[in-house]
Each structure stands twice: as structure tokens, then as C-alpha cells.
Amino acid sequence: MFSFNAVASAESHLTDTVTNGFKLRTVIVDAGHGVKPENAPKGHYSRGADGSFSNERNVTLSIALKLQKAIEKDINGVRAVLTRSTEDDVSFERRAQIANENKGNLFISIHCNSLPDKIIRERVGGTARRPKYRSVRVADRSGKGTLFLVYALKRSTEAENEIKNNQVEAESDLDGGGLDPDDPVVMILTNEYKRRFRKQSVNIANLISDEIVQVDGRRSEGLRGQSIYVLCHAAMPSVLVETGYINNPDDEEYLNSDEGQTEIVNSIVRAITKYKNQMEGSGN
Ligand SMILES: [Zn+2]
Questions:
Q1: Cα-based distances in Å from 25 to 19, 28, 81, 149, 279
Q2: What pLDDT, on a 0 to 100 scale, did the predictor assign at position 283?
Q3: How far is CA 196 from CA 8, 152, 208, 235, 237, in A?
Q4: What interhelical angle do 56-74 and 249-256 show, nearest 10?
Q5: Cα angle vertex 274, ends 268, 280, to 5°?
Q6: Which among 96, 114, 244, 257 is least surrounded, fewest beta carbons within 10 Å?
Q7: How confident is the model at residue 63 (pLDDT cuts 50, 70, 90)?
Q8: How far is residue 209's CA from residue 114's CA, in Å, rounded to a whole number?
Q9: How far is CA 224 from CA 87, 157, 161, in A?
Q10: Distance between Cα 32 and ligand 1 center (Å)
Q11: How far, in Å, from the CA of 176 to the mean position of ligand 1?
Q12: Distance between Cα 30 and ligand 1 center (Å)
């Protein structure tokens, strides 16, 4: 039901993005995850990852609140709309709906990455000829830096290889269980995305990545395509920013610091400003 609305909504903004005179008016700022409220409406919810002293949902809210203020203060004539402004989680479905109801031109989703535990085999005795082992789960704190997810229904072979080389969890639970490649609605939304939003989604992701690498001197793992519900259902260019690894001690410290959050926010604001200038540039 909702998905058909998203398609209709996408059609109604068509003129905004393909004709001259495009203006970036509204940026949707999406704080990933949250605490599912009692009596929450039906939909998909996700609590997010935990660090050693903090958790993803609080970090994303804190960064999103700062980002909303900074966009409205520093980018002339642009409004920023939050999909969630308290610790209460908002369903994936409602987040996309908020983005479309507010006629967003750009969707920025804030998240933190986390590596899954590794399973190692540990010797627990036995003899030299017949050693005994057990499997132990250990935290993998080696991930560090940023990663950018853009929507892709199926992983390309290239992305698959990248994932094999670099075991990043990358928000595997964010497809809402609802992005079935054989579902006609998903096919329509995916084609719409490819035709109208993919190029600019990649563009804004690269612009943010460049700012974080060049100005903040932090690591970027680059862009990856992933089946993510909100990126598909928001009828506008969209990127999910993994701002750092909450299960890496250095990154967790940075993500929770006022300095770190401000650096991330300023990088995103500079990238949006560049994006706005490109899209509204002379000759358009
Ligand atoms: Zn997340």
C-alpha cells in the first residue's frame, strides 16, 4: 500500500529533478535505529549496534540533531527535516513516508558500523596427537573509518568480492525483509531509483567521502551497493553514511565526542553545499 504511494510521490517530483531550475530545498536527516516504543505501529524496527560504553542509536540521534541545525544555519534556503528526534524508533516505512511527505530532495541516513564477532578455535586440552578444541566467539574491533551505502537490489559481483575481502556487516538487517527482487513494487521502485536517483546518490556519497578523507584525515572504505529499505523507498537521491565503527575503541571515542560529531557534521554540510551548487549551477 505504502509502496504504491511512494511510486506516485516519486512521479509527482519528476519535474523537480529533470527540468531546469532545480532548487535543493529540503534535506531529510535520518537518525538510524532507536528504541521501539510500546504500542509501536506495525512496521520494521531496528535497535542498532552496541559499542563498549555507547550505542549506535544514541550516537546517530546526536549527530542527526547537530546536522539538522547546521544545515539550516549554514546552507541558505535549505530546510532539514528529521525522521526521528527522540530515542523512540520510527519504522523504516514511516521514515520513507516522512521523507516523501516533506518533498525531500536529498536523504541522508546516519549510522555507525560494527564488525560481527569472529569465531575462532581454541585449544582446550587433549593430547599432542589428539588435541581438543572448542569454538569461541570473539569481538572483532579491527574495523575503522567511514563507509557509504547506496541502494542496490542485488549485490554486483564486484561488491560481493569486496565483501569477501572485507568482512563488514554493513547493516544487513536494514532491508526490512521486504525487498524481494520478484516483488513487482520493488522492481518498479528499483527501476525508478536507477533511472532517476542512482547517479546523484553516488555523487553525494562521493562528495561526503572526499570531505571526510581530505579535510578530516579519516579513512573511507568508499561506496557499496546494498538492499536498504529506506534508500529504495525514499523517492530522492539517498545515501547511508556509516560514520565510523562503534565497536572499534578509537572510533567509538571519536563518534561520542563533541569534536568528532562536529567534524562529521561539517563534512556533510560542505558536501551538501557542493552538491547544491552543482545541481543549481549556472546553465541549469
Ligand atoms: Zn545502523
A1: 15, 10, 11, 23, 12
A2: 43
A3: 14, 13, 20, 9, 8
A4: 50
A5: 130
A6: 257
A7: very high
A8: 18
A9: 28, 12, 11
A10: 5
A11: 13
A12: 11
Ligand 1 centre to CA of 260 (Å) is 18
Cell numbers given for 209: 567521502
- Residue whose C-alpha cell is 525522521: 83
CA distances from residue 118 to 53, 112, 166, 211 in whole angstroms, order as listed: 20, 19, 13, 32
Task: Calculate the alpha carbon distances from 208 to 99, 249, 269 in Å.
Answer: 20, 23, 9
Amino acid at 74: D
Ion ligand 1: residues, CB < 5 A: 32, 48, 111, 171
Q: Which helix (H) or strand (E) holds 254?
A: helix 249-256
Closest CA to 246 of 184, 192, 168, 179: 168
Query: 50 CA to middle of ligand 1, Å?
Result: 10
pTM over 0.70: yes
Note the pLDDT of residue 96: 96
- Separation of 35 CA from ligand 1 center, angstroms? 13
Average pLDDT, stretch 170-194?
A: 78
Of the chain, the end-to-end C-alpha distance in Å amounts to 36
Of the candidates 236, 266, 108, 91, the residue with the CA atom closest to the CA atom of residue 178: 91
Distances (CA, A) of 200 to 53, 81, 145, 191: 36, 20, 23, 15
